[in-house]
Amino acid sequence: MTPSPASIRPPAVAGSFYPADPATLQRTVDGLLESPAAALQQSPKALVVPHAGYVYSGSTAGRGYAALASWATRLHRVVLLGPTHRVAVRGLALPEAAAFATPLGTVRIDTAGVAAIAGLPQVVFSDAVHAFEHALEVQLPFLQRLLGSFTLLPLAVGDAGPAAVAEVLERVWGGPETLIVVSADLSHFLPYATAQQVDRHTCQRVLDCATDLRPDETCGAHPLNGLLLAARKKGLQPHLLAVCNSGDTAGDRQRVVGYAAFALCPAAEHV
Questions:
Q1: How far apart are CA 49 and CA 46, in angstroms?
Q2: CB crowding 81-96: b at 16 or more within 10 Å, else e
Q3: Beta-bridge partners for 154
Q4: What string of DSSP letters covers 129-146?
Q5: How confident is the model at residue 74 (pLDDT cuts 50, 70, 90)?
Q6: Torsion angle in degrees (nearest 10) through CA of 13, 196, 49, 154
Q7: Burial 4-13 (b: 16+ CB within 10 A, else e)
Q8: pTM assigned to the model
Q9: Are strands 123-125 and 92-94 parallel, antiparallel or unpaired?
Q10: Cβ–Cβ < 8 Å for 177, 239
């Protein structure tokens, strides 16, 4: 059954963060997915990828998603978490919509995943939180081109501690069919050299599975802290796939935004 138009969350940032024309968007994303991919020995269970406009962070996101290419055919379910930029929320917000749309088509919401977490006190429903939020939306064209058909569990994460986020992830962790994606940028509006230094330190903290990352270190600290707590429990090891900032891509170097991509894979002793 096709969701009614009223129950579909339409794209909010097509034409600004990424191309609105479907053919142009497809060519753009396919080109970004041709980025050199890291040689990972195991299928990533989770990715951390940036969420700026594609001209700024698309190359970094592309390298993150390209690392999934060898395993893409078995992935049919995506749990997608990101920060809120426009509407504040306490906890984690699910949409009431039945599907999300981009210029490339419609992605159905994972109703079983919604049911699994709907009773948790830190989970709320709010279409308003999702309506204009770009952090989740910009990931969808990459997932659509890489995976084809999949269901989506989109979570906009506001004021939520690591344990609250990790509890949600535990309930929807799934098996090899499930990919977890956290949408997160690094530092914001620092001079180029300062940003490089700050971001190197933050990347090392992610690689160490720190669970006390701050919003000034990463725009996405709350969902990322929860993922890294879950990663510790599940025996996942983060791998840095790419790092740069807007001064390397399409911005000046006076006030830059940092971007990184990570894959979280089972550690050798957990394989």
A1: 10
A2: bbbbeeeebebbbbbe
A3: 80
A4: HHHT-HHHHTTHHHHHHH
A5: very high
A6: -60
A7: eeeebbebeb
A8: 0.96
A9: parallel
A10: no
**Length of the chain counted residue by residue:** 271
Give CA–CA dist 102/106, Å, rounded. 6
Which residues, 6+ apart, have CB-to-CB distance to 75 below 8 Å?
Answer: 68, 147, 150, 176, 177, 178, 179
Distance from C-alpha of 215 to C-alpha of 185, rounded to nearest angstrom: 10
Query: In the numeric block, which tokens belong to residue 181?
Result: 């994606």
Start-end of H helices in the chain = 22-32, 54-66, 111-117, 127-131, 134-137, 140-147, 162-171, 192-207, 221-234, 246-249
Contact 189, 219 (CB under 8 A): no
Tokens of residue 195, six digits: 């940003």
Per-residue 3-state assignment (H helix, E strand, C coil) for 191-250 = CHHHHHHHHHHHHHHHHCCCCCCCCCCCECHHHHHHHHHHHHHHCEEEEEEEEEEHHHHC
The pLDDT tens digits for 192-219 are 999 999 999 999 999 999 999 999 999 9
Give the three-state DSSP class for 176.
Answer: coil
Residue whose tokens read 């001079």: 191
Residue 11 in tokens: 């794209």
**Backbone φ, ψ for residue 8 (5° rounding):** -105, 130
> Rg of the chain over CA atoms, in angstroms?
17
Residues 265, 40: Cα–Cα separation, whole Å? 8
Report the amino acid identity of residue 182.
Answer: V
pLDDT in tens, 127-173: 999 999 999 999 999 999 999 999 999 999 999 999 999 999 999 99
